[in-house]
Amino acid sequence: MTHCILLGAPMDEGQRRPGCLMGPAAYRVAGLAQTLVALNHTVEDRGDVLPGPAPAVTCVNPAVHHLPEMVAWTDALREAVADALPDGLPIVMGGDHALALGTVAGAAVHSRRQGRPLFVIWLDAHSDIHTVETTTSGNLHGTPMAYALGLGGFDPFPPFPHPVPGQNICMFGIRSVDPAEHAALQAIDITVNDMRVLDEQGIVAPLRAFLDRVQAANGMLHVSLDVDFLDPSIAPAVGTTVPGGATFREAHLVMELLHESGLVTSLDLVELNPFLDDRGRTAKLMVDLVGSLMGRKVFDRPTRSF
């Protein structure tokens, strides 16, 4: 039994398509808490995180938007996750992926206090390894991995509190990387399991290889699950769709393997935009995936009308 702590992050300032701020409400309506309770976990919903006043900050990149708001969100989410981790498994209900600027930082603070290394598995179509200085879109949801690595170019954000070594990061399901991100990935020792790797090797071998490293190091594992990790044919409620994503069964297999490892200590659910959904289809799928992560077996699937 795990004590699950729900934290809402109703934010969509990290990109330009409004709607992700409705994500936490959609997860609650889709029965996330009830799913966890049915699996014999305890649930504490701490409500939505509230950022403090946006500081008067600027940066050298004129493309960046909502910078003050994102600095405030990052501070608030770092503290919320660091405060929750001693009490259980925080599940952060987003919100766009810029929330991971704060959630991974909070996990890093806690892991350092525990004297254990932090590992991150990034389930996403995108590598999100731009910096505040290099982003051309100005969308800060494309920067969390670079921040977690401790790369430069993040003024005026506070320094990342204990940067995650590249070898402690696994990107899984990647299939949309621009040239600048490709160059950054080549310069850093990160495990990148793109869809070509998964097509050739399958899901199990690459994921188990990474999980074995986490276990051998007595590491803590932060999982960041982006809706666009999934193929848009099964998960339409995201503003950054990329064809060729994980299938229903592949996604559930990833979650089942993560559960069996017993290593997951914190979880992000990001980029759900209910405004783009079809009768809650994507929200329900994401909740079902959390169910698999928390112990639901393959033969326990609920029947759906679609």
Query: What's the gyration radius in Å?
Result: 18 Å
Could you state the CATH homologous superfamily? Answer: Ureohydrolase domain
Order of helices and strands: EHHEHEHEHEHEHHEHEH
Helix proportion range: 25-40%
Query: What's the arrangement of strands in the largest beta sheet?
Result: 2-1-3-8-7-4-5-6
Kindly give the count of domains.
1
Work out the helix count: 10
Q: Could you name the CATH topology?
A: Arginase, Chain A
Characterize the largest beta sheet: strand count, sense, and whether it forms a barrel: 8 strands, parallel
CATH class: Alpha Beta
Portion in beta strands:
15-25%
* CA-based shape: globular
Beta-strand segment tally: 8
Architecture, CATH level 2?
3-Layer(aba) Sandwich
Give a written overview of the molecule:
- It comes from Paracoccus fontiphilus.
- One of its GO terms (molecular function) is arginase activity.
- This is Arginase.
- It contains 10 helices and 8 strands.
- With about 300 residues, the chain is of the alpha/beta class.
- The protein has one domain (about 5-300): Arginase, Chain A.
- Helix 3 (about 65-85) runs parallel beside helix 4 and helix 8 (about 205-215) runs parallel beside helix 9.
